[in-house]
Amino acid sequence: MVNRNQYEFVRLVGNERRVGSTLKSVSRHWQKNPRFLFVSPHDDDAIIGGGLTMLSLLKDKIPVHVAVVTDGAQGYCSMAEQDTISDVREKETFTSLKRLGVPQKNVHWMGFPDCQLGQYQGRRKATPTDNVNVKGYTGLQNSFTQLLRKVRPTQIFLPTSSDLHPDHRIVHAEMLISCFHAAGAIWPELGKPLSAVPYIHEMAVYCNFPTTPKLRIKAPMNALKKKIDAIAEFRSQKQIKSLIELIRRAGPVEYLRPVPFSLYNPHLYRDMFEELPHYGYDQMHR
Ligand SMILES: [Zn+2]
Q1: For 202, phi and psi rounded to 5 degrees?
Q2: What is the CATH number of domain 8-284?
Q3: What's the confidence (pLDDT) of residue 35?
Q4: Ligand 1 centre and the CA of 42: distance in Å?
Q5: What is the 93 CA–ligand 1 centroid distance (Å)?
Q6: How far is the CA of 58 from the centre of ligand 1 (A)?
Q7: How many angstroms is it from 165 CA to the middle of ligand 1?
Q8: By C-alpha distance, which of 227, 258, 257 is closest to 240?
């Protein structure tokens, strides 16, 4: 029976069911000096998908960083806020994350134009009209590579690739390739390469996972209350009340899906193309 005041982690690895009270206790490849980065395409995504996970990590004194990719400029619910909503949402994000215990210095407001991420895939020389310019370049891969080399996370959490919002899908794809850029030697002006590609987990925000999750975090009820109070700080988002009701009903639980990299391994296909030895009846019954 689990103590209701404790966190419980369950990780499924093959037929094994690992249970523990910390993420470290159910992780075989725990790295020294862990640092975790939560990637939030929009201000509230990371808390919706991973607020309880963040709280459990902060309780264990693990540094938590949050990167908010878009500027939220398309999220106005009244015409009066049309030109000011981005600033409002930036302040709400700092307040919300502070409630969870993430200090403002660990919140990275990246400022890409909301709902226009399709125009910022990849990397190119920045022009005067680009909102984001890092070392003379713009594009998600440019900013993500610099962020990864600055924060140097051992693990990354980001919304699943199956979310309907194109911004979520684009962030997923661009962050995955940026992990390899950051660990490689290219673009030296963006910082010192990472020594290893970070482990990556997906969080569910609006849609189910593309395949089943392998990690479950059950949190104490007071952690769920903290998560809900933090989400309620996004006051400018008028639909937030119905979202909070959904989160309350889901209970103090989050599921995560590891993202495996299956890098090309030609040996996987070798046997398919070989002529198999033919066993006749006599050979089989010798
Ligand atoms: Zn979003």
Answers
A1: -100, 145
A2: 3.40.50.10320
A3: 96
A4: 4
A5: 13
A6: 23
A7: 7
A8: 227
Residue 69 DSSP SS3:
strand
The owner of tokens 């998560």 is: 227
CA of 265 to the centre of ligand 1 (A): 35
Q: Residue 132 C-alpha to ligand 1 middle, in angstroms?
A: 19
233 within 8 A of 99, measured Cβ to Cβ: yes
Nearest to 140 by CA among 98, 102, 111: 111
pLDDT of res. 240:
85
The residue to which tokens 């910022």 are assigned: 120
How far does residue 238's CA lie from ligand 1's centre (Å)?
15
Asked if 46 contacts 40 with a C-beta cutoff of 8 angstroms, the reply is yes
The reported pLDDT for the residue numbered 20 is 96
Between the CA of 23 and the centroid of ligand 1 the distance, in Å, is 25
Is there a contact between 205 and 163 (Cβ–Cβ < 8 Å)?
yes
| Mean pLDDT, each 10-residue run in order, the chain (286 residues) | 79 95 91 95 96 97 97 84 87 96 97 93 96 96 98 97 93 96 96 95 94 97 96 88 91 95 86 79 61
* SS3 call for 216: strand
Query: Which pLDDT value is given to residue 282?
Result: 64
Distance between Cα 15 and ligand 1 center (Å): 34
Query: How close is the Cα of 159 to the center of ligand 1, in Å?
Result: 8
Determine how β-strand 36-40 pairs with β-strand 64-70.
parallel
Report the separation in Å between the CA atom of 116 and the middle of ligand 1, taken as the mean of its atom positions: 13
Sequence spans of domains, the chain: 8-284
The residues facing 216 across adjacent strands are 10, 255
**Residue 186 Cα to ligand 1 middle (Å):** 30
Residue 156's nearest CA partner among 248, 285, 1, 34 is 34
CA distance 100 to 200: 22
